[in-house]
Structure to design on (211 residues):
């Protein structure tokens, strides 16, 4: 399936609203009413278009084989920190096809290369393992868990905190991790052998001095 990200258009609102107007999708997104009125989605799309102008957020409409499948956004809630947060949703009929994973990969490439960010992060709830798995597949690292962070009904929910740094992505993209580890391993071995020779030399000289 071909996954593409493009800047949002106001005409996307109708299709996006159709996709989001689903209890299974909305239960993972806070702040949306159910049913979600078209006016709400039109406002969101307008905000997204505006976000590009003000550079406060970078939102993309996700296309799967040319069809609108969802939306993904990089936004800076703390303003000017260059530490952007990721948010996304995909319509239920598109789930489990790798579309989110591919969209995350594309948006982080844009974030690091074009926006020159040094860090991108995302939070997921323990009741949303699919979202965490998509981040993991895209190369994000689980940096911490905030236990019993919120409540969903009567259940306590943990918050999973995910992060990706520019350096980590560089290693992933260039497949340099293994090479780096090998160089480091050799360096450690080299240092260890020097230390052994120094210890041997010291014991021989002490031995000689004694006798
Ligand atoms: C979360 C969401 C974006 C995932 O989108 P998606 O396109 O289906 O994700 P992908 O197909 O790229 O990856 C999903 C992965 O999660 C796995 N997964 C799905 N349901 C799962 C579950 N209940 N438990 C564990 N893993 C699960 C899939 O098997 C897949 O992993 P795999 O490729 O190793 O098999 C989508 O379900 C969604 O829009 N949900 C509602 C909105 C939302 O949760 N937004 C994110 C808020 S943090």
């Amino acid at each position: 399936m071909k996954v593409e990200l493009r800047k949002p258009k106001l005409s996307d609102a109708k299709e996006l609203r159709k996709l989001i107007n689903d209890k299974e999708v909305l239960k993972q997104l806070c702040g949306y009413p159910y049913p979600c009125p078209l006016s709400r989605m039109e406002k969101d799309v307008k905000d997204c278009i505006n976000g590009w102008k003000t550079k406060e957020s970078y939102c993309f409409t996700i296309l799967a084989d040319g069809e609108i499948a969802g939306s993904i956004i990089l936004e800076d809630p703390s303003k000017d920190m260059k530490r952007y947060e990721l948010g996304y949703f995909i319509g239920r009929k598109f789930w489990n096809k790798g579309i989110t994973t591919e969209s995350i990969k594309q948006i982080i490439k844009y974030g690091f290369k074009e926006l020159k960010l040094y860090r991108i992060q995302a939070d997921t709830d323990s009741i949303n393992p699919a979202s965490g798995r998509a981040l993991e597949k895209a190369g994000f690292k689980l940096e911490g868990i905030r236990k019993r962070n919120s409540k969903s009904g009567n259940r306590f929910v943990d918050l999973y905190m995910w992060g990706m740094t520019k350096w980590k992505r560089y290693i992933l993209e260039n497949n340099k991790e293994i090479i780096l580890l090998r160089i480091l391993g050799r360096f450690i071995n080299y240092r260890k052998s020097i230390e052994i020779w120094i210890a041997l030399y010291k014991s021989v000289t002490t031995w000689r001095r004694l006798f």
In short: The longest helix spans residues 177-210. The radius of gyration is 24 Å. The domain at 3-174 is CATH 3.40.630.30 (Aminopeptidase).
